[in-house]
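[Automated response] Your request has been received and processed.

Submitted sequence:
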Amino acid sequence: MKVKYAVQVLSTRVANAVEAFYGNGHQATVTFIRNFDKFFDCLNVRSMEEGKRKKKTNLLPYRSTEDERLKWLNNDFLQYLDDWDRAVDGRHELSKRDRNRMKLSRETLKGIRLTFASFVAVTKYLLGQPGIERILSEKFNQDPFEAYFGNHRQMKGGNEAPNVPQFCCNANALQLKSLNLLRISGSNVKIQAK
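Generated structure:
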């Protein structure tokens, strides 16, 4: 599922609709949706005004090392994920394969823990520095790294495991390309006019 669709499905609006139409019989689903909506919001604060405009406090910039969202991410949300994991493991009537399909993988849980611990630590550190008044969490992402290493993979025929000399050669070529001094057109190399 694409992230934009997951964000639409796992939203407060959907949680409210499920609660209104199905009542308390689906409270676990409503809790799941609300937790993931808050999780998405906490890690996607992208502007100074979006939280006010959408009337969602979880989209407001981080301004304090004591922000409740930092505590919620590191404690409450992780506890929710652990409880979910234990509840599924306790369903002995299901096969191990089915139980594994009903929960997040160990690797995903480990990645979430590392992400939260890192984000909370960096946010608290930065907000403790003079001159840092706010943090926009969306700015913390790995897109530049993915793009850089994606460019490496595309070079030399999509080599997934280059050795050190190949990696260094690719890095030099990417650096030259980023300087925009050379324009490569077909098999000809031309100096670009400034």
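Summary generated for your ticket: The two ends are 45 Å apart (CA to CA). The first strand starts at residue 182 and ends at 185.
If you did not submit this request, please reply to this message.
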